[in-house]
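Good morning N.,

You mentioned wanting to compare the apo and holo forms, so I went ahead and generated the holo version with dTDP-4-keto-6-deoxyglucose. This is what I fed in:
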Amino acid sequence: MDDEIIVKNARFIKLQTIVDGIDGTIAVAENFNHIPFEIHRAYYIYNLGNPKAVRGKHAHKKLEQVLFCINGSCEIGLDDGENQQAVILDKPNIGVYLGAELWHTMKKFSDNCILLVLASDVYNEKDYIRCYDEFTDYISRKK
Ligand code: T46
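and this is what came out, ligand included:
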């Protein structure tokens, strides 16, 4: 698995943590500080007990997001239309930034996985590209 992200419009994000001794750790996400946009929606995905589940399989035209696996682990597949890469999320304070126009998948969820997503906008189905051929057409039209 790669330590560096080579696909366009993606990078790892490390949250500030405050280690409170044996009593726990706090991870902090602030707009335009740890998170490179203003957060307009947060959602989380859980009950990921199906080992064959593959989520995502789409790109967004404009939406920016940061994904954190705040419990357990999973694999995020990234594809900018030219480069493909898979990264593992398994630390609650290390997420992956997904900019616009990035095909992504989420899979290999551990039983206890909880995926937290911070998003730059509210839900809008019109922002999704859910067909891979449409995605590659969309990317090449913008070149
Ligand atoms: C993304 C990845 C990382 C809503 O109605 N409101 C919402 O806020 C969301 C997130 C989803 N939905 C509906 C849309 C679909 O009918 O829930 C259904 C499942 O959504 P989707 O198939 O897009 O779920 P994932 O897990 O493939 O993708 C989600 C986000 O939808 C997406 O924006 O980038 O997580």
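The mean pLDDT is 96.

Happy to go through it together on a call whenever suits you.

Best,
F.
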